[in-house]
Every structure is written in structure tokens, then in C-alpha cells.
Task: structure prediction
Amino acid sequence: MKRAVIFDMYETLTTLMTGPQCFSRDMAALAGADVPRFRAAWRATEEDRMLGRLTFGEATRRSIEACGAWSQTAQDAIMEKRRASREICPERLHPGILPMLDALKARGVKVGLVTNCQSEEVAAIRASVLWPYFDAPVMSFEVGLMKPDPAIFLRCTALLGVEPSECLYVGDGGSHELEAASALGMRPLQAAWYLLADGRGRLQPVGRMAEFPQAEAPADVLEHLE
Result:
């Protein structure tokens, strides 16, 4: 049996696609900035945001200023909406997430986290109901590494005290995470439970990846431990 399961965060354990949202289009609207121009400036800060070189607030101000639209009112409105959008509350969790994590703990399976995230997301993750479950949380903003760099996965396995081959990696597939985990010898599993099941579309930014096994519900993770 696998000794550890390493999870992605967004669109795996929780989702950003329900509840209040604050993506670049929403930020531009709050600032009264041109959306394409704001998006270009915002995307230019992505690596710095993820690797801990810029806080969310610093990157927001830089992007608004690039559009000639900065004001303290706009900055404050964006910060508050973003905070609310990143809050990890029970209503945004698939109902099977916490029972699945409880079952892993009951079996003595270690739980790791490898996530690309920004400063405001670090705070939300640390304050969430999910936080106590992690034996080895590795967040890009804190460690200066981001997926799909193999080093961020290996940082987690080292903290867990396991070899990559002893791990199941569960993620929605963004940032080429499943390919990277597989290349290291982990067993990859695509989390599909945040995909819409009624044919109207999908919640996850990443669709189904047929080349990887998929878990339709969190409880399915337990079946892939053997």
C-alpha cells in the first residue's frame, strides 16, 4: 500500500469556481482598468507571485499602475474581494473531502500538499479546516519552487520521509503536475470530482486527461492506495 498521498489544492481539495470569484477580469473591473491591458500586466507578475518575490498586494498595485488606474479605493476593494474568494469554507468543499482525509489518517497514510499559490492563498490555506490534515504542506510562495519543477515534489516527499514510488499524487492536472509526478515515480491520479457531471460544461479549468486514471469522487482515492 502507498505510504503517502500528496494532494494539489485548488480544483482538487477545494475549488475556486464556486462562490465569490476574483480573477483578473474582476480585478480590472474593480479598478476601472482596461481588461486586456490589466491581464497582460497581471500575467507578467505570475512567476514572482508564485515564487514569493511579490505579495498579492504588491503585484496588484503594480498591475493597476501599469494601466494608469491605481487608487487606494480600488486596491482595497480588490484585496477584500480576493480574500473572500480564497477563503476555504465547508460550502466550497466536495462533501467527500473531509471523510476521505479522515480515512487516510485512520489507515496511517501520510498526507502531503504541493500547491502553486500566492501570499493571500497561503493565509487562506493555513486558516482552513484542511490545514491540520497535512503532514507536509509545501507551498510555492513559501519555498520558492513551483510545479512542475521536480524539486517541489521532492521537497514534500523528503518532509514526509518517503520515496516518490511510495506516493500517490492527486491533482486536477494543471501546471503539468500529473506528468511531473509520474516522471518521478509517483502514481498519478486525476481528481475529477469538481467536473460538472450533467453535461452543461465543467468547473475545472483542466478537462479530463484520458492518459491518467481518474477519481470521480474523493472516496475513490482510497481504492488507488494498493
The two ends are 4 Å apart (CA to CA). The chain has a mean pLDDT of 95. The first helix runs from residue 24 to 31.
